[in-house]
Design a protein that fits this description.
- By secondary structure, the protein is mainly β.
- The protein has a single domain, classed as Beta Barrel (Lipocalin), CATH 2.40.128.
- It has no helices and 14 strands.
- The strands form 2 sheets. Strands 1, 2, 3, 4, 7, 8, 9, 10, 11, 12, 13 and 14 form a 12-stranded antiparallel beta sheet that branches. A two-stranded antiparallel sheet has the order 5-6.
- Strand 1 and strand 2 form a beta hairpin.
Length: about 270
């Protein structure tokens, strides 16, 4: 399904220690400024734009199918049902350096997702196998996160944790929430940054409603469903690159690969 969740969503920009000095009395983190030399850190506040996409598989935690016209509930093995999810998500984020090692943020944005539940393995006597049905939804997503960072002028390490929830609209009663943890280790070369890492993602997605079964030769049949979904593959790999235009402006791109794929684009301006 879509995570806006992801969500990774789950999904947030990389924040790293700056190489260049900023000017002005408001430089540096809000607390514990004595741990860094004056002017050796990003300005404390940042506003960013994120664009995130992801393709993943889901496991079915619970599935209820009821076809009143065919006598009621259909018993199936959830492990035989394939579920795939694609999501696009963008958000506006406000962050702050609380200390030289801790950046915290809040975000609000928009998610658009498509989940396909393939019932081809479900055989109904007299009708044969059931078709796949889509669960499409969109809505507002909001979240909170924290990024622990340590580095020098040559390298950095970070662990970014984010929690998101989406208020959704669509054909069914849907809800999505996600927890994301992203460890990264990278290099700083002049104004360029490069990193490798991974993404641990847990998405909990729920849908319920009535789907119109369209089978050859008969009128549409109402199918009532209630399904709970969870991320199938919790981990995937990631690699990214970023550019520091100035101590006030950065841009980055990350690609995730493995059993799940994602892309993450971010631009952040600091003040």
């Amino acid at each position: 399904m879509r995570h806006m969740f992801i969500a990774l969503l789950l999904l947030t920009p990389l924040t790293i220690q700056a190489q260049e000095a900023t000017s002005g009395s408001n430089n540096g983190p809000l607390f514990m400024k004595d741990l860094v030399d004056e002017g050796d850190f990003f300005a404390p506040w940042g506003v960013g734009l994120d664009f995130f996409t992801m393709d993943q598989d889901y496991d079915i935690e619970n599935l209820y199918l009821n076809v009143p016209a065919l006598g009621g509930e259909i018993e199936i093995d959830p492990s035989q049902v394939a579920v795939t999810n694609k999501v696009q998500h963008f958000d506006l984020k406000l962050d702050a350096w609380i200390t030289p090692f801790l950046n915290m943020y809040g975000l609000v944005g928009r998610v658009d997702a498509d989940t396909i539940v393939d019932l081809g393995s479900v055989i109904v006597p007299g009708l044969g196998s059931l078709p796949a049905f889509p669960v499409n939804y969109d809505g507002t997503v909001w979240g909170l996160g924290a990024n622990l960072v340590y580095g020098t002028d040559r390298w950095f390490g970070s662990v970014n944790t984010a929690w998101t929830k989406a208020n959704l609209s669509g054909d069914y009663d849907s809800s999505v929430k996600t927890l994301t943890i992203q460890p990264r280790l990278g290099l700083i070369r002049n104004q360029w940054t490069m990193w490798v890492g991974g993404m641990w993602l847990n998405t909990e997605e729920k849908h319920r409603g009535t789907f119109e079964l369209e089978l050859p030769g008969i009128p549409p049949i109402p199918l009532e469903f209630d399904v709970d979904l969870e991320t199938s593959d919790k981990w995937n790999y990631a690699a990214g690159i970023g550019y520091i235009f100035s101590p006030k402006a950065t841009i980055s791109f990350e690609y995730g690969f493995g059993d799940r794929t994602h892309t993450l684009f971010n631009f952040t301006y600091r003040f």
